[in-house]
Amino acid sequence: MAELLNIGLIGLGVMGQRMLARLKDHPRLRAAWVWDANPAAIATTLAAHPHLRAADSAEALIRQPGLDSLYIATPPAAHIALSHAAFDAGLAVFCEKPLTVDFDAARDCIARIGREKQRAAVNFSLASASGLAALQRAFGAAAKLPLGALQSVQIELGFAAWPRPWQAGAGPWLAERVEGGFTREVLSHFVFVLQRVLGRAEVLESRVSYPADGRSAETALSASLRADGVPVTIEGRVGPEIEVPDRNRMHWRASDGEVELREWFGLSEQRKGGLVQPLGESEALRGAAQADQLEQWVALIEGRSHSLPGYAEALAVQETIEALLAGKT
Predict the structure, then answer these.
(1) What is the mean pLDDT of residues 128-146?
(2) Which of 8, 16, 56, 256 is the S-S candidate for 73 at Cβ 3.0 to 4.6 Å?
């Protein structure tokens, strides 16, 4: 029987709790130690998962003997410092995005990862999705273009409110423009897909709307980009006229067909002149992607090849995201 791999989790908000639930029945990955800056979050977590042990601090958790990997689900400002501490302790790191609020610090961290062969990845949920695999087969660098030449990409996002109802426990940072907002939290997943398939995107134009309070995150974004010569348009907004908490669509149109990702993991394809062919419902494909992501995490810990985005790829996504938020006319 393969040995268990012990995981320490720092950050017990929404994402930390979701990861604990996913790890619960995994045959190899075992949540062992937790810590959060909020004592109430620790108490609630221990009550729900009595096998866990709570460390006295983030630093104490990282130093615990027997750990194999650290999962970081704190607000972004702490990500790089925690990553360095984990590398010092010999741990593989799986970090939530956005990667950082300090690009220079992130570049220094990326240089260390390359220099020391540290094991680190960032959680973009679509990295293990069937939709990404289908897009790479159709339009990636090695693709034989079964749907013809790619002509355009459209990304559409809508939210009834921001943050979404299930994010209520994430903390105020998610609703504020310094670290939060739907562009960083949701659009980044689709920019990751775009850039993994086509390479770095250039922002040609971007218009961003913010509330007048000077603090809250964006309520709308409209942008034009170009990736590998292909025009890309983005439309995202928050408003009560949107009837569901979270709506998203990514449409790839080629000369001889189309591919669409919808509601995160839903996937369909249409050949020119043919009917739309559903290739999987969102929830079924979500489960398969999440299961594969955990297997990729095992590979990361064991130093094997994996498909998880590294810190350099995550930073490239974030640079595009921040360029969008900076606005350009």
Answers:
(1) 94
(2) 16
